[in-house]
Write a structure and sequence with these properties.
Blueprint: E1 3-5, H1 6-16, E2 21-24, H2 31-37, E3 44-47, H3 51-65, E4 70-73, H4 77-80, H5 83-91, E5 96-102, H6 124-128, E6 134-136, H7 144-156, E7 162-168, H8 169-173, E8 175-177, H9 196-207, E9 212-216, H10 218-222, H11 226-236, E10 240-242, E11 257-260, H12 267-274, E12 278-282, H13 288-291, E13 306-311, E14 325-328, H14 331-345, H15 355-375, H16 384-394, E15 400-403, H17 407-415, E16 424-426, H18 436-446, E17 452-457, H19 458-464, H20 468-474, E18 479-484, H21 489-499, E19 508-509, E20 512-513, H22 518-524, E21 529-532, H23 535-547, E22 552-557, H24 582-592
Helix pairs in contact: 1-2, 1-7, 3-5, 3-18, 9-14, 11-14, 12-15, 16-17, 16-23
Length: about 600
Amino acid sequence: MPRLSGAQMIADFLVKAGVRHVAGIPGHGIWTVLDAFLDYPDLNVVQVLHEQSAAHLADGYYRASGNPIAAFASIGPGAANTTVGVATAYVDSQAMMLLTGSPHTYMRGHGVLQELDRSQWAHFPRVMEGITKQTWQPSRVEQLPFVMQRAWSAMTTGRPGPVHLDLPMDVQADDADVTVHGPDQFIGSGRSRPDAHDVEKAAKLLAGAKRPVIVAGGGVILADASHELVALAEHLGIPVVTTWMGKGAIPEDHDLNAWSVGDTASTSGNALAANADVVLSVGCRFVDWSASSYRAGVSFTIPPSALIQIDIEPREIGKNYPVAVGLVADAKAALADLHAAVGDVTPARKWRDGTYFGEIVRLKAEWDAICAGRRDSDQVPMTQARATKELRSALDRRAIVVTGAGIVQAIIRQEFPVYEPRTHLTSGGFSTMGFTVPAAIGAKLAQPDRQVAAVCGDGDFLQTMQEIGVAAMMDLPVLFVVFNNSGFGSIKGGQLANFGRTAAVDFLRKGEPYSPHFANIAHEFGIPGERVSEPDQVAPAIRRALASGGPALVEVIVARNFPEAGTNKTGWWDVPVPFNHAAQREAYLAGKAEEQV
């Protein structure tokens, strides 16, 4: 057996697991691991400029490819800086491995530089327990091959998610005679299938429905189940509505795509789902955004709608709505089995001639007409919907679009059509500001032959804009698009709707809108930058940026006054309003009374 240091064991395992990139910032707590990476040419070390970005980069890589990579950080503040990025991945069930430095095992509790020790020695793993599938802190070098195997298994099996290894500095440096195996020998193959009796029950329920609807959540994309989803929908002529995380599960120019469901979604998706007699949910958690805070008749009405729920995570079944049939299974396997069972009950239907399909077409046309007002507006400053329309026209059909929190996230969801899985990446459940830029860099590393557009508001961009320097240093052709409204626009819109006034949302200097010139900042980072303010300038600027062959930034000046600055408001979101806003409070209580919780 070869003699390896702990750090070499980690690097050796990552290479055998197929990891090609590791991202982070060096520090004394992780020096030894980083030094070992240098001996493995198959590992590309990506130097980011903030540890939060390392986690987002790894997250974006996985979202775009389905293949996990690793992030690293030093002890103390370096490790702590990763928590927002790790939590973002955890909430959205995205796999990544985080490696952090830890005090020497023989110095724990002494309060060495950057140790958290006041309530428990080397306490950082406790911080990570709530935002990872599992965290490990090995105490001997001989444990590392086993720990790496268990971490990889936890990260990639069942419901994916981030894992964390807190690595004492002496364990990194110590050595042992070991053979490091890749994960294949320690992880089972195949997909978990649902109970056959329950599948038969679900098939009969679905085949007998008059107004069925399929809800595609992020689990469809995680399981690579889009083909099976579309095949089942086409067999019976069932409209498919998507959640934030499910966007891209069905091509959005497909006749059975009924657009999004939930708050700030589509009128077509909400109308169909709310009036369904049977709802088939696949990999959907029914969070408040996707279910309009459970207000009956807005997005869903369960009951009386009968719910068939498919999820890999048993705890999600029946959590927010009661089920008629609950199938704990992999989405791809469950949809394939359900389609086969439906085929035993009824042949494929000629649904294009039916009245239900006619209703789908009508509702989609009505939604498109609603969107047209902002989308086709020539006003200056332009609407974000118009800017999004111009952006879509300049990008390839298979381009990857990445968004974080803000109006942009909602506009992209509502009005930017995508046609394949893993081409719409967003910080869905955690709705993290600062996600967009580093996640887009990760996506480009994962899919170098695809156009990748990081599209964000100025508030989101300011959180992690320094990472455009990473793209510059790597000469990585990522397109950065900043919709600049000089403030936190989505928060402003919410405050106005709920309270009629705002606080701490506009960027002002001496009472006037204030903003850096982001295109000039791009120049200082050594990449092309262009600022546009007219709608017909957007698409040409995007094309010039793409033609540059490297990273480039386009800053788009957009409207900052509501309602034209916002989205087409649909659905319902439970945001409590106090008594001193009487009219808004009355409307809020009326909506809350209809919630099915």
